[in-house]
Amino acid sequence: MTSPLDFQVAYPSLRPPMMGRNAVCASQPLAAQAGLRMLLLGGNAVDAAVAAAMALTVVEPTGCGIGSDAFAIVWDGKQLHGLNASGRSPAAWKYEDYAHLPAVPELGWDAVTLPGAVSGWVELARRFGSLPLTTLAQPAVEYARDGFPVSPLIGALWQRGVERLGGQPGFMACFAPGGRAPAIGELFRNPAQARTLELIAQTEGEAFYRGELAAKIAAFARQHNAGLTLEDLNNHRPEWVELLSRPFAGGSVHELPPNGQGIATLIALGILEHCGIGRYPPDSAAALHLSIEAMKLALADLERYVADSDHMEFEARHLLSDAYLQQRAALIDPARAGDFVFGAPRQNGTVYLSAADAGGMMVSFIQSNYMGFGSGVVVPDTGISLQNRGASFVLEPGHPNCLAGNKRTFHTIIPAFALDGAGQPLMSFGVMGGSMQAQGHVQMALRIMQHRQNPQAAIDAPRWRVVQGREVMVEPSLDRNTLAALRAMGHQISVEDPMQIHSFGGAQAIMRDAQGVYIAATESRKDGQALVY
């Protein structure tokens, strides 16, 4: 029998875990309320997730927008389904046009890939939803039309976005119409975005990819000599995919396959099982050392091999074989930090949400602009901010993630799901924040599945993040003696400045117990909220 969750363990927090027969967790309270409204109307978990996702494009534009990409994992009551709603690069893109640059630009049209999030909302609602898309869009439309108060963290990020992106086409008119970012607590209205969301809902996405909105996007691209065309938008389709998984701690962890980084979570967990991670207390120096080293090995493989699955040198599953993971685990010195080199991560913006209903359906969903507001490009009179995911391509001929036309770039955003030993749902979970996401998934799985910490304690626990080489960033709440022990092992530890905007991402999780009751938890460091009934 699985041991019970530990509700006595706790880390500094202002939040208890929430419990109920239905649950919604989101990175912004108004979005969580949008999802809960759908459940109260008789909708299911997918209805709640889609409503929350649409609302997040309005109330948290610093992390996602209508021009984002999205991914999802759905437990339909019997089995898991994976959805890849990420867009490809414009067909006209050529490596030669970027070869003279040190990297793919992060700003402007040269960073814009096809937006896939809208197709994800539509596909999820079409296959699993029970309410009309027009109903699911209503909270988002109301927030955009009538206004919403800008919360403190989002307000600070908004100001940063205005300073960085003010020169990009369409940005100021949409997000700083008075020539400035909205103040914290100020009501912000975006009537153009309200009209766009209504049109998307009324046409079930057709207007966005093949109709009026698609024409506006393509025309704005032509105006700026960009590669994105109406044909590119017409050709976009989301894709249902087979999930990757690894057994772990008596259950299993499931991630979407490449082009996302979820496989790094599975590699690291596999290595840790071969290292006997369960022998060590979760906050001990030994456990943290092994976890950091396993993550460094996983990230090294991630950077070298993972890209659009159509362009990888071999099938992703080969990175998860027991023989290979055992070989990688043998490289770890239990007393000394090693050198496993990979590229430095980039800063970005992402939103994650989870929803679950009394009927047993659960959803793990994520969407993102990539870096904050994305490219900074906003299509006039639409509220459509376009992502800058093209900046994830590399300019290295022969690399599987090298820039090319009609290709999905490597993706950082990943939802996750765990099943128990009987193959029944254990939890939907996710962590936001670039390369922190795979690392956060590992830390959540260790604390909840291996050590049976309750999800709020697991989220509140001090996190670490591999930066580059032996460089590791940790949160200031990590025990000082543990820090000293890690430094003695050769880790180059930096402690995050508590006065800076949090760089360890945010997390949400919904667990399901044997009674069918959900235990929901969300980030206490940020604006997230868990709602249940």
Question: Any key phrases for this structure?
Answer:
seven-stranded antiparallel sheet, 533 residues, alpha+beta
Task: Explain what this protein looks like in three dimensions.
The protein is of the alpha+beta class and 533 residues long. Helices cover 34% and strands 18% of the residues. It has 17 helices and 21 strands. The chain has helices at residues 29-40, 45-59, 95-98, 117-128, 133-146, 152-165, 171-175, 191-202, 206-209, 212-223, 230-235, 262-274, 285-305, 322-329, 436-450, 455-460, 480-488; strands at 18-20, 23-26, 69-75, 80-85, 148-149, 187-188, 239-241, 244-248, 251-255, 349-356, 362-370, 378-379, 384-385, 416-419, 425-431, 464-468, 471-474, 492-495, 507-512, 518-522, 529-532. The strands form 5 sheets. A 7-stranded antiparallel β-sheet has the order 1-20-19-15-14-9-8. Helix 12 (262-274) packs across helix 13. Residues 342-347 have low confidence and may be disordered.
